[in-house]
Amino acid sequence: MGSALPLGEPVPSDGSLPPGTRIDPAADFSVYLHVPFCRVRCGYCDFNTYTSSELRGARQDEYADTLLREIALSAPVLERAGGNRPASTVFFGGGTPTLLPPGDLARMLAGVRDTFGIADGAEITVEANPDTVTPAVAAELAASGVTRLSIGMQSAVPHVLAALDRTHDPDNVRTAVAAARETGLDVSVDLIYGAPGESLDDWRTSLEAAVSLESDHISAYALIIEDGTKLARQIRRGEVVAPDDDLQADMYELADDLLGEAGFEWYEVSNWARGDAHRSRHNLAYWVGADWWGFGPGAHSHVAGVRFWNVKHPAAYAQRLAAGQSPAAGREIPDASARNLESVLLRTRIREGLPVEELLGEGRHAVAALIADGLIEGPAALRGRVVLTRRGRLLADAVVRALTD
Q: PROSITE patterns recorded for this chain (predicted)?
């Protein structure tokens, strides 16, 4: 059900931002809509998601109306801090948003449109399990204004899917992509590598299958063992073997090779797109520190330098909103040091990199050594940008430590 919420100061019952907070009206604004429902809990997953047996006091069929209450409450909060802005991106994440009827997702999107407006050319993404995408579902989503479907493929190899507790039929990935394409939606597929028992050949099979779908975008994430998950307990008991760092590095290099040969360009450590037009603009908003409001239980937000987050359980979330209160559980205003660390951590991950001038003290002095070690690109550094080499992408955490120590 996700990791613990951070500590922070209390949020007023009306959700107001701290006194003196002023929004930059020229800054982009993104909206995240969290749908916390899953049919099955995957053993590796640490997201704030719930199966039907875990809801206890919350109803899936009432969820859209509950979330719309939070959207309505947010409008005066933003107005008091300088005004609402149209959303440049909207992202339905989860969980499995497509477990809800498409009409519920459409109503949630209409709530965003009616409250904030949606910018011309906005990117509107829905995450989906391939088993939940039919031609009718894809058509209804497209008609509501959705522009992009992100399909959780994870693997094309049955025993790897089983190791991840994924229950979808691998053949349905192709069916889901075809349905999305038929309605004109852009398509992204998500992959995970390093599952217990997955070989390099298994990973090649999944990559080749993903490329054959001719999608616009592919994400490939290394499996991370999160505390409190089923998989972490299995590894601790010796039932399965933990991911091998060297094998995962080989898998990453294979992904970069095969995707590059297929016409995909890396633009973030774990993401490749067929040209700039198909990058995930919503995720880029996170990486460059733009403003976003996350709606839904456990969702996090960042507006005008203020971070805040909602109560986790759908029942507690619904109860607060039914009482006309903000579901926010806490907030913080990171200091300059924390903001600098976060900027280096996130912006070094993207292809455009981080301006060298934004590095502090010893961080700037570390650049030359990182070039010598083959971790950042020398020509880019001469142009004033810190851009990771492929080896640097594999050792991104070490690069960040060198730039911030």
A: RADICAL_SAM (PS51918)
Instruction: Specify the 3-state DSSP secondary structure of 35.
Output: strand
- Tell me how far apart the alpha carbons of residues 342 and 346 are, in angstroms, rounded to a whole number: 6
- For 118-123, the CB contacts below 8 A with 24+ separation are 118/86, 118/87, 118/90, 118/145, 119/86, 119/87, 119/88, 122/86, 122/87, 122/88, 122/89, 122/90, 122/147, 123/88, 123/89, 123/90, 123/147, 123/148, 123/280, 123/281, 123/282
> What is the span of the domain harbouring residue 254?
29-287
Give the pLDDT band of residue 335 (cuts 50, 70, 90): very high
Q: How far is CA 236 from the centre of its chain?
A: 28
For residue 327, how many other CB atoms are within 10 A of its CB? 26
Amino acid at 352: E
Is 384 found in the same domain as 261? no
Q: What is the mean pLDDT of the chain?
A: 95
Burial track 19-58 (b if 16+ CB lie within 10 A, e otherwise): eebebeeeebbbbbbbbbbbeebbbbbbbbbbeeeebeeb
In a domain, 19, yes or no: no
Are the C-beta atoms of 144 and 121 separated by less than 8 Å?
Answer: no
Distance in angstroms between the alpha carbons of the first and the last residue of the chain: 33
Which residue stretches of 324-377 are H helix?
336-347, 362-372
Asked if residues 395 and 375 have their Cβ atoms less than 8 Å apart, the reply is yes
C-alpha to C-alpha distance for 405 and 400, rounded to whole angstroms: 8
In DSSP terms, 125 is beta-bridged to 91, 148
Q: Are residues 257 and 126 in the same domain?
A: yes
**Amino acid letter, 146:** V
Phi-psi sector, 353: left (phi>0), alpha (psi -120 to 50), beta: left
Cα–Cα distance between 149 and 105 in angstroms, integer? 13
Could you tell me the two tokens for 185?
């939606």
What CATH number does residue 354 fall under? Answer: 1.10.10
* 254-303 per-position pLDDT tens digit: 999 999 999 999 999 999 999 999 999 999 999 999 999 999 999 999 99
Query: Same structural domain for residues 283 and 339?
Result: no
Number of domains in the chain: 2
Helices 200-212 and 245-261: crossing angle, nearest 10°? 30
Which helix (H) or strand (E) segment is 65 a member of?
A: helix 63-80
pLDDT, tens only, 363-398: 999 999 999 999 999 999 999 999 999 999 999 999
